[in-house]
Amino acid sequence: MSVSDLFKPLTLLHGPAMRNRFMLAPLTSQQSEFDGTASEFDQLWYEQLAESGYALIQTSAATVEAGAIAFERQFGIHSDDHLPGLTKIATAIRQGGGLSAVQLHHGGHRAKPAVGGIPAPASDNTVPGVRAITTREVERIRDSFIAAAKRAQRAGFNGVSVHGAFGWILSEFLSPHLNDRTDKYGGSLENRARFTIEVIEGIRKACGPDFQIGWRLSIERYGLRLEEMRDITAEIFDKELIDYLDLALWDSAQVVREGTFQGKTMLSIFTGLPRKGVRLGVAGKIYSGRRAAELLDEGCDFVLIARAGILQRDFPMQVKANPMYQSPEMPVTADYLRRGGLSERFITTMRGWQTFVKPGS
């Protein structure tokens, strides 16, 4: 396919179509207020993004409960007090012509007490001195995901993306390494996936047929098994439980190093599955229009732009104007990011990423 194919529309199972194949990945900015309320910096950031040509913009990870918080100044959607800010963001994105989704997040065992988080491990032995959450507590958190989705709908978002990656709570429950439960949420793969399935199905029931549901999945670290992640994804595709899969890889070209699929790209394990009407996209070191187009050739329906979107807010428009567009090389100076519209809070966050911000700048 050519770069021009990136600008073809893409229908989804529910709700409006994407106007092109560029989705903004959920980016951690840590620029919200301490209670999770959208700050003026959040508003300015999403207003910039709304004019940048993306088909769908995901927010940064938003807490579904106050105790779900995993890092300072995390975006929130656990209270009706967050609705005014959320509504402004959804409105800005809609006025820019794009679709919008709130990424729903719970820190699980990685919730951070120093900022008000309450660790919620699947097992007794994951966090020293903290017992596994009870079956009733799992069900409460499930219902908090669903309530947060309803809140996103009230704010005017087209949908939500359920965060099931990076060892956060849903990913944690999928992992046989982190989940040794003996109730209905532990043991077999079916039981370990029950939490995720109940969240997704509950959102669909609560929010109706026009609301879009994405699912972010990672397959590295935290004891996740590639074969199992493939199997549960195949089931979710077959039942068309979601509108799109957001496959979060560190590098979209990663190759499996061992096991059943050794030598194949991680992406190919999922693009090879029958997906019916579900759409599949990938994130991971997509820095050019050419690489984005290659990923369509490799079986993706869309691409998720992450670091490249921080380096250059209007990445899709840059690619449209110049099919050979390539992101600036990292590290970049803090002043470069300031000129591009990043707040000091966001720049501070990016200093924590190795090789992103030039030291001393």
TrEMBL record:
Domain NADH:flavin oxidoreductase/NADH oxidase N-terminal: from-to ranges? 5-321
Matches recorded under Gene3D superfamilies? Aldolase class I (3.20.20.70)
Q: Recorded GO terms, molecular function? A: FMN binding; oxidoreductase activity
Q: Which UniProt keywords apply?
A: Flavoprotein, Oxidoreductase
Is Flavoprotein among the key words of this record? yes
Task: Say yes or no: keyword Lipid metabolism present.
Answer: no
* Protein name in UniProt: NADH:flavin oxidoreductase
| Annotated organism of origin | Mucilaginibacter conchicola
